Amino acid sequence: MQRLRLAETLPVGLTVWQLPLDLEAPIADEDYRLLSQTERQRACRFRHHADVVRAVTTRAALRRLLSAQTGMAPEKLVFSENAYGKPLLKSANGLAFNVSHAGGYALIALATCGQVGVDIERRRPEAELASLSDLILSPSERRYHDSGRSALPFIERWVVKEAVLKALGLGIADHLQALSIASFLGQPDTYYLDHSLPVSLPLQAWPLPAPYGYAAALGYVDTEPRGCHCTRLSGG
């Protein structure tokens, strides 16, 4: 598992790990033992072995990272969900997390202050994604894409929206079109977000370094914009 190098302009307390997945390997016993009974049952419902590997390996890695930050044994951590299914850590003391996986990679993001979301997707030709434009793009984004003047690839807009909405803990499909993504002129390491979402908190998003053939983004919601005393996360 590799800790990604993030831009120094990001808020203190945000960290992201990249986890390569061997989708043909057997499930590691030490990973499986860390999971709760509910997590094991959920993983066993997958029909394909690769999906089981993603579920078990990523969840075990998440438990180990959270254990290192909380001091609790990884198998003792207890999770809950909000109304939209976003996983939360009970007794987290301000520690937030989010997970995404696609293909042979997973991303795990942690935040000691605010809420965090992360997304990774495999890149595909724009023509293959055209059928999704009405679902994902806002009206202003569709105008740019239809005219061929869009500065951002479709897949990049997609991962940013998913990351931001996951940070907010909202239903993703219901709000994709309410969020527009643009790049800051001269600032390639951050995005400009325009939205009509039912929130008043500051939203931020950044591109993440991703393996070849993938796109990834990090979303962040500052839940205490008047001053949040974040702490730096440990870990390699």
TrEMBL record:
Q: Check the record and name the Gene3D superfamilies matching this protein.
A: 4'-phosphopantetheinyl transferase domain
Q: Does the keyword Cytoplasm apply?
A: no
GO biological process assignments: lysine biosynthetic process via aminoadipic acid
Q: Where is the 4'-phosphopantetheinyl transferase domain?
A: 115-184
Where in the numbering of this chain does the 4'-phosphopantetheinyl transferase N-terminal domain appear? 33-109
Q: Read off the SUPFAM superfamilies from this record.
A: 4'-phosphopantetheinyl transferase (SSF56214)
Any one of the GO CC terms: cytosol
Q: Does the keyword Transferase apply?
A: yes
Which superkingdom does the taxonomy of this entry point to? Bacteria
Q: Which GO terms describe its molecular function?
A: holo-[acyl-carrier-protein] synthase activity; magnesium ion binding
This protein's UniProt keywords: Transferase
PANTHER family, per the entry: L-AMINOADIPATE-SEMIALDEHYDE DEHYDROGENASE-PHOSPHOPANTETHEINYL TRANSFERASE, PHOSPHOPANTETHEINE TRANSFERASE
The Swiss-Prot or TrEMBL record describes its family as follows: Belongs to the P-Pant transferase superfamily. Gsp/Sfp/HetI/AcpT family.
| Name used for this protein in its record | 4-phosphopantetheinyl transferase
Q: Can you name the source organism?
A: Vreelandella nigrificans
